[in-house]
Amino acid sequence: MTNITSINQALPGTLKQQLDEQNALTDVSTSLLTQLQRLNELDTDDISAEKIQAETMKSKAMVDVASQIISSERLLFERKKEFAVVSTQRLTK
User: Fold this and answer.
1) pLDDT tens readout for residues 6-43
2) Would you say 32 and 66 are in contact if contact means Cβ atoms under 8 Å apart?
3) 51: Cβ contacts below 8 Å, ≥ 6 apart
4) DSSP assignment, residue 83?
5) Number of Cβ atoms within 10 Å of the Cβ of 67
6) Looking at residue 43, what is its pLDDT?
């Protein structure tokens, strides 16, 4: 019973953390989609080559950062999944 009690006590914080992580990934997606929209709306006839280059560099930087965030979240998810399996095995013994 002690294990179940401690797990129940841990759930609210874990749930909040999961929601925060989900929100962070949603923010990344929103930022990338916003930048994609900006790039799509660039009128190459009315804009300087420098501005196009700056927007392109900004987009590449955003993709690089987003890739790192997603990789990090993927690794964290895999570790949580492993922890859940081990925890479940321990509780069922």
Assistant:
1) 545 555 566 667 777 777 778 888 888 888 888 888 77
2) yes
3) 42
4) H
5) 11
6) 76
